[in-house]
Amino acid sequence: MARPRTLLLVLAGGAGGRLELLTDHRAKPAVPYGGSYRLIDVSLSNAHHSGIDDVWVIEQFHPVSLTDHLANGRPWDLDRTHGGLLTLHPHLGTEREGWHQGTADALWRQAPLIREFDPDHLVVVSADAIYALDYDTVVAAHAEGGGDVTMVTTRRPIEEAGRYGVVETGDGDRITNYVYKPDEPATDLIANEVFVFRPSALLDVLGSLEEDGGDLGDHALPQLVDAGAAREYRFDAYWRDVGTVPAYLESHLELVGDDPAIRLDDPAWPMLTRGGHHGPARLARGAEVADSLLSAGCDVAGSVERSVLSPGVIVEPGASVTDSVLLHGAVVRRGARVRGAIVDTGAEIGAGASLDGTDDVVLVGAGARVAKDEEVTGGGRVARENT
């Protein structure tokens, strides 16, 4: 018996404005994460480990930053003669041309391609959360349940639930109500942006909405729930949305220490990414490093504690980095103090400078410079000056 044909669609076209300076010059799914990875590596690695060979990535904002990283799908064994990775962009020349105006609209514009591909199951995921999930297990549960959509659900603190689609359930796994980003959430159970659809059901709903589709949560998902065709798949393992600056930093701090919330290098489910070209990390005599992740090519002569350093980061003698994330090629000069900060690619913290994000994250943009002995306190934002 032939295996059912599953298509994974990664929604990777959002502007990512809540990540502020981190998405000024790159797509949100291309934002570095965990030292050596990118956010989109999560969904692509899950696809690989789940045995899904057909993956489409819908791009829009800053597409080059993402396409360059995807490398034709090679890191995830998606560089195939038949199937594999396909990147989709806004286009001209058909009745569905133009910019995507939300996730449902993005899918509606690709509906003819989806119908032509004719999958048995359509998995739709976003690219801004950290988790390890076997999509094929969810697909199997969806097929057994016989509904039009299976939403992967997880619990979040009630004060956060209003940022997502909030789910109410009835008997068994049946979803009885779904409200997108409510002001007053009825429960702490949310849809975590992993969905399995019966393709014809989703495409029929999108066809009825056409250009008014907006996001999936606006009309499409409520319509499927109201029809009694929605089920949940409960996911109780680690899941973290990193779509805001504070959440991005907090999730990194959950990677370090003796008992990290999730291991990106888990031998049973490793995160896969495009390979780099850096040599080993270097720790100078006198360097102090504790509860941290250091990527290839780092050069540390100062102190680093409870932090994550991407490839090529330099921490000079006498400098200290605590509870922070330093992205590719960032430099912390002698005597500088960095605490509770995110320092983007190629930024430089001058000698003797101080970043103190203890109460509110400090964010230094790509290529920005913090002057010698300058102080930046909680909530500060340092962008690169125009030249």
TrEMBL record:
Protein name as annotated: ADP-glucose pyrophosphorylase
GO biological process, one term: glycogen biosynthetic process
Keyword Transferase: yes
Annotated family: Belongs to the bacterial/plant glucose-1-phosphate adenylyltransferase family.
Source species of the chain: Cryptosporangium arvum DSM 44712
Single GO molecular function: glucose-1-phosphate adenylyltransferase activity
Coiled-coil region list: none
Transmembrane intervals: none
Lineage: Bacteria, Bacillati, Actinomycetota, Actinomycetes, Cryptosporangiales
Family matches, as Pfam families: Hexapep_GlmU (PF24894), NTP_transferase (PF00483)
Keywords: Glycogen biosynthesis, Nucleotidyltransferase, Transferase
Keyword Nucleotidyltransferase: yes
Residues of the Glucose-1-phosphate adenylyltransferase/Bifunctional protein GlmU-like C-terminal hexapeptide domain: 285-354
Residue ranges occupied by any Nucleotidyl transferase domain in the UniProt entry: 9-254
